[in-house]
Amino acid sequence: MKKIEAIIRHFKLDDIKTALTECGVEGMTITEVKGYGRQKGHTEMYRGNEYAIDFVPKVKVEVVVSEERLRSVIDTIIGKAQTGQMGDGKIFVSDLSEVIRIRTGETGADAV
Questions:
Q1: Burial (0-12, 13-18, 19+ Cβ within 10 Å), 64
Q2: Is 0.70 topped by the overall pTM?
Q3: In Å, how far are 10, 64, 102 from 28, measured between CA atoms?
Q4: What whole-number distance in Å separates Cα of residue 38 and Cα of residue 19?
């Protein structure tokens, strides 16, 4: 089992959610996050004053998939999240040693 964490732009969330559902992903966790990467934030003007925005708001999408479906899910996220501009986000993939469904006690792929 693999855990995919994708940090994306807010306005891309609905497209990614729809595409992942069509791809067969049955569940996901969404978290609003703030951070910065190479772009190091940006500046905005408010009432004639310039303000530095150090942490850019993003959305983190977390899904758990089998090894066989990993590449197709990653390709789906990239295809829907990519704008070609700095700040499109990142995807992190981690190994999961164990998954347990609390309600039933099922483990592994049955728990997802």
A1: buried
A2: yes
A3: 16, 8, 16
A4: 28
- Inter-helix orientation angle 13-22/70-81, to 10°: 150
- Least confident range from 4-8, 38-42, 89-93: namely 38-42
For residue 100, give Cα distances in angstroms to 1, 38, 105.
12, 37, 6
Domains of the chain: 2-111 (3.30.70.120)
From residue 39, how far is each of 43, 54, 55, 104, 108 by CA, in Å?
11, 10, 10, 45, 38
**Mean per-residue pLDDT, 43-68:** 85
Kindly tell me if the per-residue pLDDT of 40 is higher than 80: no
Find how far residue 91's CA is from the centre of its chain.
Answer: 7
* Owner of token pair 């303000």: 51
In whole angstroms, what is the distance from residue 44 CA to residue 29 CA? 30
